[in-house]
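Dear support,

I submitted the protein below through the web form. The confirmation email said the job was done, but the results page showed an empty box. After a refresh the structure appeared. I'm attaching both so you can tell me whether what I see now is the final result or a partial one.
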Amino acid sequence: MTKPILIAGGGLASLLFARALHRAKIPFLVFERDASIVFRAQGYRLRLSSLGLDAIESVLGPEGFQKFYAKCGKTGGAGFVAVDPFTGETGETLGGGPPAVSNQPLLSRDGKVVGISRGDMRSLFLEGLEDRVRWSHQVAGYELTGDGVRVVFEDGTKSEEGSMLVGGEGVKSKVSKQLSGGRIKVYDIGVRFIHGQAPTTAFKGLGEGVFAITDEKSHPGGKVFVITNVRPEEMNDPNVQFGWTLGGSPGVIKAPNDDYTIIGKPAAEIAKSLTAGWHERLKPLFDEMVESEAAFWKITCSSPDGVPEWPNEPRVTVLGDAVHGMTPAGGNGANTALRDSALLGRLIVEAGGYKEGITEAYEKEMRVYASEAVRKSYEIAQKTFGSNKIDSSTPTL
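What the results page shows now:
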């Protein structure tokens, strides 16, 4: 009997990788710490780059991709539209990040900005794989066997033996820490975000587009910025909520008791207070927000020096945030993680399952594009968000 490929974590990268195995009828098991897919808030909306979309399409195939693409929102406009927070006036169209840090347009396919919420994306990737996911399994590490590997859980129990293990459990990955001997590090760069949602009626004053609002006047020594995407096809549906992300440079947004796991009213009240002096065109985004959906978000990043080297282990590797955490600046993080899933999935499918040499080939190729993506993400975050520099004194997760 063929041993399954073990996957730690049930996030986007892990589930897209699992779909590649599923289509090729290669057995696998996913171990996820949450009790179910709806256990916690799914976070902000993702902008999918052409590289991210290509990766998804290569895994899902033509029919599966069309179903996925139909669920995505498509917004016109080639860049962020700047809005003055105090006058409400619409300014220039910026490039790939506010303010015009990049001249790259946001367009990714069909002349549109393509996006989808993390929750919707995760549900689509999970469809049909439910019986292969083991919920409420907190991964603590792994142990190699004579000709396989087992996952070790926080309660001391172990998984069945697998042919290989792929760690995809995010920036606090235990698999990543063990595999790299601590070489993979993620740094807290001081920027804090609040994610919020409001009914479509709150966005009527903005109209269609991807908007960037930057306030450098209200907070001496710091700034507040908001990014939101208003999609025309859902604009008139009062049952739909659009999201926004409010960010603050280091020291501007402070969660109660420094607890960034808090959700709901405390986060909502801080978002409202930080935008209290803004124009009436923008106020509904915060005044009408669904307070229970508000959530804090710590911005972290891997070293801009690139994905480090570690002694290759043929049966264990890592993907996504577990190996290259990024800031949301430039939209690089999720799209790079999806590239990992497609690449590793393709190598395993072409080999018909686990073969020695796969993890080495994957890591060699991944390090090149992921290191460049991390560097770009870090540089844009410094210019756009005013993030702290990463050096020997920067705290790690």
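Response: this is the final, complete result; the empty box was a page-load delay. The chain has two domains: 5-41+118-184+304-385, 70-117+187-301.
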